[in-house]
Amino acid sequence: MRLAGKAAIVTGGGSGFGEGIVRKFVAEGARVLIADRDDANARRVADATGAAWVACDVSNAADVKSMIDASFQRHGGLDILVNNAGIGHLPQPLEGLPEDEFDRILAVNVKAIYLAAREAVPRFKAAKKGVILNIASTAGVSPRPRLAWYNASKGWVITATRAMAVELAPFGIRVNALNPVAGETPMLKTFMGEDTPEMRAKFLATIPLGRFSTPEDLGNAACFLCSDEASMITGVAMEVDGGRCI
């Protein structure tokens, strides 16, 4: 029960890595609020775990404010904010991505973290404690061709994590990131372009441990970084990638 008594928000908690984080946090005693624009999946995970949920577009300022308010209304506060929601784009030449897709990637992968921080950080400062965990990617460390703008958005997340950690440390607030390699999530097909045995084998050949990240892997790593066991760890972008970035 490493998170007993903690109130947590997990954005994008209705599927993929977010679902794995929600399930682990609940198992470790946290009171979790799932924030997701996919109502059906958010409700499914909430029903399965006992977590609460709220409909939220993380790129919308009003939705994000409502999300933070909901944690205080339902769980009496907020101790942990996990910025997990993210989107990618199909592999393509960097000059070929439509502008509206580029804008959406920045809105969900980048602006959402700013919006969440704008609402959560003043409350964390008042409490003199708090943990923020941003889900970045190995793409921000070791970019793959034809995913240029996704790579760039995750590189921003890593830099933002470090900048936030330095600025917020005097207030007792820790900020870390996780860098998963592509995993068994709905986004896998997006990264590969197509989900075929041949494409999977080609991708897996780049991962020394020979498998994709799983939601359970991310849940376990997130639990550690958000727990008091990691009280001396801030500004870290920890790779959960089976050796992909070596």
Task: Give the SSE layout.
Elements: E1 7-11, H1 16-27, E2 31-36, H2 39-49, E3 52-55, H3 61-75, E4 80-83, H4 99-127, E5 130-135, H5 148-168, E6 173-180, H6 188-192, H7 197-204, H8 215-226, E7 237-240
Parallel strand pairs: 1-2, 1-4, 2-3, 4-5, 5-6, 6-7
Helix pairs in contact: 1-8, 3-4, 4-5
Quick structural summary:
The protein has 246 residues and is of the alpha/beta class.
Mean pLDDT: 95
The largest sheet has its strands arranged as: 3-2-1-4-5-6-7
Radius of gyration: 17 Å
Tally of DSSP helical segments: 8
Instruction: Tell me how many strands there are.
Output: 7
Q: What is the terminal separation in angstroms?
A: 33 Å
Q: What structural class is derived from the secondary structure elements?
A: alpha/beta
List SSEs in N-to-C order: EHEHEHEHEHEHHHE
Approximate shape: globular
**Low-confidence spans:** none
Q: Profile the largest sheet.
A: 7 strands, parallel
Strand content is 15-25%
Fraction in helix: 40-55%
